[in-house]
Structures are given as C-alpha cells and as structure tokens.
Amino acid sequence: MDFQPTEDQKNLRAGVRDLLAGRYGREALRASVDAGAGVDRALWRELGEAGFFALRLPEAEGGVGLGLPEAVLVFEEAGRALVPGPLVATHLAAGVVPGAAAGTAVVTAFDLGGPLVAHLGDADAVLGAAAVPAGEPVRSVDPLTPLHRVAAVGDVSAYRGAGALLTAALQLGSALRTVELAVRYAGEREQFGQPIGAFQAVKHLCARMLVRAEVARTAVYAAAVTGDTGEVAAAKLLADEAAVLGARDCLQVHGGMGFTWEADVHLHLKRAWVRAEQWRTAAQAEELLAEELLAGELLGGEPLGGEPPVVGLLGRAG
User: How buried is residue 60: exposed, middle or buried, by Cβ count under 10 Å (0-12/13-18/19+)?
Assistant: First the structure.
C-alpha cells in the first residue's frame, strides 16, 4: 500500500503553496491581525477561481472533480498559511449554496457543537440553517476567528465527517509550520556562543514536535484515502494534538520572544485551540473510537480477541 502523493498531487500542493505565499504571506497575515478579524472577499474569490472550494465538485457541475486526498493536501497548505475564514464550510457548501464553489459567497456552519458560530458577520449563508441567524458577538481567543452566539443550532451531521477531516488537514498544516518556525529559530538564536538548537533540551522539543506532526500526517492522509469513520476521528484527534502541543513547544523554543505579539507563534496556538473545537472535539473522537473498540472493530480490524489485526492508521490493505 502506497500513501505517497502522486506527481499531480504534489504539483497541486506546490501550486496552492505558491498562490498563498504570493497572496497571503506573513505581511498579509499580520495586516489582517492589525486590521481586525474579517474575511478578505478578494482572496476568497481568488481561492474560488483557483478551484479551492469546487475541488471535489464533479466536473459536470463546474467543479474540478477531485477527491478527499487532494482536498486534504490543499487544506494542509491553507492551515500552514493560517488563512482565516470558514474555509471548510464554504468548501462543503460547493454545489449546495449558490456562489460557494466560485468563492463569491462566504458560507459558515454550526461546527462548534453549540450556540457559537464563527465568521457569522461575514457569512452569506450558514450550513444547517435556512437563513443567516442573528447573533451576539462573543470575544474569541483567535483574533482572526470572530465568534457569535446564536439562539438556535442547526443540524450539520451530514457534513461532520468531511468537515472533521478537512479541519484536521488545517491543523496538520499549522503543526508542520510550527516545526519549521521552531527549527529555524533554534538555528538562528545563539546563547553561550552557539545556536540554541545545539542544546539537548531544545533538540528534544523540536524532535517531539516533528514526531507528532508526522504521525498526524500519516493519519490524515490515510483517512482521506479510506474515508473510514474511525480513521477520520483518529486523524482529527492526532492533528489537534499535533497543532496545539506543537504550537506550545514552538513557543517554548522561542523563549521570551515567543510570548510577544510580534511573533507568529501565538497565532498558530490560538487558531489550533479554536479548530480543536470544530466539527469533532477530542472527547467526541475518543467516544467514537471507544464505541468501535467495544464493537470489536477498531479502525477496520477484526473482532477483539486472539491475534490483533496488522492494521493501523494507514488503513486496510488490499
């Protein structure tokens, strides 16, 4: 079984990375933070023109006609760049809400499992609702993810699996980016006449970040291929952990600099906290996996008892 991206998939990922680097690099990110939270409509339309939202829509319906594996690679890059906005909800709304596929409409969703809705003020539609509901602004931990409290919550159960996987891909991109930030800083910052990356404690932090991120990457890619409910839950669980703990370790590598507003580390941490509550929380993922264990079918394996199945997060062989 080979889970390595194909050449076309690698080119797709590289193309999205180049697009975001040119259109939403660090200067644009910091400008968004300074200006206050909000969806950049021009960027949204550009993403739509690039096929970001219509990626999985059939070609007969004006989409690109690709699948979840390709969507995961694209969302990984968006997570790496910390692109703000309801990317997952708008992607899921392609073909359902007019304008979503083209990026001319901003669509959010009841994905926080309660009365809170992200980006409601910028939304043209809300998945699970007939109309955009009124909401009361609530202070958000992430400066680029505004929240509103609404009176009633709609049903998004039909979108939960794909939403959780794509959010996991965003978390994965953020986790991989914080590894890069930590390693770069560890090589540049000197103490006692040598880079801090030479110290064992810093090496351990960076190695731990990398291991978490790579394990999450394996889980996310596998879930994108198999589409298995349990594997999607495991992918979200591992990606949330990699993003949150990775950002915290990255902050530690940066030391006092990491606690300043000018550093980008806190933006990754705050976004990771919010995403960890979207579509499927850690507690919900753990409950789902526990149910599969009780049913004797953990991640597609054989009933418990006797020899354990040689199947892991990479999915079923054959």
Answer: exposed
